[in-house]
Design goal:
heterodimer, A: six-stranded mixed sheet, 54% strand, B: 117 residues, mainly beta, 0% helix, globular
């Protein structure tokens, strides 16, 4: 089955700096990679996703890059703000099959004002 | 965006009792719902996948007789923790998917914090 690894497990950055979280996956058939943000005591919220037919996707301060050959994808947050502090999870799946999502282990991001 | 609700948000029960958690898709029909368990500072662990009108598919190691899942309608799935014990205390999260032909996005509920005394 699919194995998703995520690094780092914790990340602290100064407000205004950029944050990068990286994930690797093992199943070359995976082609859908969502990123979720989870605040304390709440359920995960989708913040951005990418499919394997593109290499990069951007939404304001958030971007995701995908390297299919190397089987890794990354979340980039620019101009970080304190409200970006949360736990971020990556996931991998096969689009259109109804298959389950395989989640990474999470990254706790702290943005220091 | 699609909204998924869970009820209750928090529940405290005595050991040996059963607890039911509801998961509802509020503005879309969910052909598939997923139930996850999350331990503090850990990732989401998939417990089972439920499709409307059929039996749930449980992940390896998850006791189907202990965690009863019912997906009776396209907007409601329930998870019942039977004969709960303190080790069942956890954060339970459901997610819902509209359908394979529409989207593979999963929309998560806010979670239910279960504490078993």
């Amino acid at each position: 089955g699919e194995n998703v690894e995520q690094h780092p497990s914790t990340l602290s950055v100064q407000e205004g700096d950029s944050a990068v979280i990286k994930c690797t996956y093992s199943d070359s058939a995976s082609n859908y990679f969502p990123w979720y943000k989870q605040e304390l005591g709440k359920g995960p919220q989708l913040i951005i996703d990418i499919r394997s037919n593109v290499g990069e996707k951007k939404d304001q301060r958030i971007a995701v890059t995908l390297n299919k050959t190397a089987k890794h994808f990354s979340l980039h947050i620019t101009e970080t703000q304190p409200e970006d502090s949360a736990v971020y999870f990556c996931a991998a799946s096969i689009w259109g099959t109804g298959n389950q999502f395989y989640f990474g282990t999470g990254t706790s991001l702290t943005v220091i004002p | 965006g699609a909204v998924v609700s869970q009820h209750p948000s928090r529940v405290i029960c005595k050991s040996g009792t059963s607890v039911k958690i509801e998961c509802r898709s509020l503005d879309f029909q969910a052909t598939t719902m997923f139930w996850y368990r999350q331990f503090p500072k850990k990732s989401l662990m998939l417990m089972a996948t439920s499709n409307e009108g059929s039996k749930a598919t449980y992940e390896q190691g998850v006791e189907k007789d202990k965690f009863l899942i019912n997906h009776a309608s396209l907007t409601l799935s329930t998870l019942t923790v039977t004969s709960a014990h303190p080790e069942d205390s956890s954060f339970y999260i459901c997610s819902a998917r509209a359908g394979e032909s529409v989207s593979d996005e999963q929309f998560f509920g806010p979670g239910t914090r279960l504490t078993v005394l």
